Amino acid sequence: MSKLRIIGKRGSKxxxxxxxxxxxxxxxxxxxxxxxxxxxxxLAGSALRxxxxxxxxxxxxxxINRTVGHSKLNVVNRSNKIGIQVPDSKLSLSRNDxxxxxxxxxxxxxxxxxxxxxxxxxxLPNKYYQRFIKDRRYELRVHVFKWSDQSEWSVQxxxxxxxxxxxxxxxxxxxxxxxxxxxxxxxxxxxxxxxKVLDMLRMSFGAVDWIVDDKHGLWFLEVNSAPGMTExxxxxxVGAFNKLKEMPLKKVLKYTNR
Length: 258
Description:
Layout: E1 4-8, H1 13-22, E2 37-41, H2 45-54, E3 63-64, H3 72-81, E4 89-90, E5 102-106, E6 116-117, E7 127-131, E8 136-145, E9 154-159, E10 174-177, H4 185-201, E11 205-213, E12 218-224, H5 234-245, H6 249-252
Parallel strand pairs: 1-2, 2-3
Antiparallel strand pairs: 4-7, 5-6, 5-7, 8-9, 8-11, 9-10, 11-12
Helix pairs in contact: 1-5
């Protein structure tokens, strides 16, 4: 068994769910307890830098998902370069683009906040434009844990109101778990490509979101490094981190960044 600690955003209910279900306690820099590795549940940018200023002792500890925090536009464009299909995404619209075909998204949006129909073509502060997949049939979320076999990764289908752009919980969306996803080519493909995205970002776990259109085309949207928990997803994360905790240290270290 490895000695793990976890870090996350202040007040994160999802991080607390993992702690309650696994006994992987919050890292507080207590030198009385040795720590083999830290799990980073979504701390990025200034929040992560602030954590290391508060707990400099953590800087030398191997950390899972130390490298999170890329903007959504950056991740989409990098994914496109490795051959993954993405909606056209850009900082401003060209003269030939139709405003009606695009939506506005924040670089680091949470729970669909700030997603709306495009209103202009000019560059916007802290936002980018993305072509809206108007013929979407449903969305997918793939829960990836690199320390588990791909056959164990969970796939959930997300549905929502036709008149809503974002199908997050606050916009009326809801998840349905796909049973035996490897029986279907579209879900197998989503899992395979989700793994490639996380490899590109040097991440070892995350929730990867996709759109499936009427022709069964698969469109990558984003990666969540601190996904919110529902009654369906909480057991997935508790189970995955309990499995990680029971692994020998040598194997756990394969999934860390230094």
